[in-house]
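Fold this complex.
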Amino acid sequence: MDIQRVGVVGAGQMGNGIAHVFALAGYDVLLTDVSEDALNGALSRMGKNLDRQVTREKISDAEKNAALSRVSTTLTLADLGRTDLVIEAATERETIKQAIFEDLVPHLGPDTILTSNTSSISITRLASRTDRPEKFMGFHFMNPVPVMQLVELIRGIATDEPTFAACKTVVDRLGKTSASAEDFPAFIVNRILMPMINEAVYTLYEGVGSVQSIDQSMRLGANHPMGPLELADFIGLDTCLAIMNVLHDGLADTKYRPCPLLTKYVEAGWLGRKTQRGFYDYRGETPVPTR
Ligand code: NAD
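Structure:
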């Protein structure tokens, strides 16, 4: 399978990073979103992130310009019909993802591979709603995509070997490292990471520590580069809650019960960095804990 044209659905934090690394690796990228603001924001963020790579001498100015020239945007999902590989990176909600695949499938050529960047939702279930479960798999990038080395590759029950091999080759060409995970709720990274973040929120909820003391404890006491609440804000609290719900529903174990305080933050629309407020308030010069 020769992959050259790549479609990315969803131009949020992950979509712009995914478009960035594919364009830099020489793929033609078509990025779509329901929001024109999101598309414009993604292009400007990509430009800034590429500039930073030039300043740090990781890439040349010519490589940056070539990458930007390979990215185009569209508000019409059907335009992705002419791509060889689609990576869906829209909001972490199963109904949204299902609707995207249902709308997209009639426009695809027979060989296009479909993938989802979902953090937790069943690949097998998403695949079953398409006409090509054997050409469907999980392609899970880490945030921020241009920096993080790992890509989790998740086989659904029907994923065939050529599809898996094609995606593995793509990861190699991106200069990243793949890890293979089975299709169970939240796969490997988030199965381990999210309960830790949820436990940090319980620690806050029960008054064991403040936002600052919890983050400082895990940075200095466990040598984590970021504290768990800082990391939750970085990921997005809506995404964290959605993943905990998938773990709770999918594994039916009370140890995955989302912390009510996490739910409260999401209900308030305090989703972390992307809305400027979460466990920290980012509206000033330096982040200020909100509890
Ligand atoms: P985000 O909220 O930053 O962006 C989501 C984007 O999807 C928005 O721009 C929104 O307009 C768009 N969208 C919503 N419905 C759409 C539709 N029907 N068609 C096209 N676009 C649509 O979210 P994100 O953090 O980029 O997460 C996207 C996906 O990546 C989720 O599945 C998430 O679980 C996964 N993921 C997130 C992280 C993380 O750290 N944030 C890490 C790995 C994977």
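The chain has eleven helices and ten strands.
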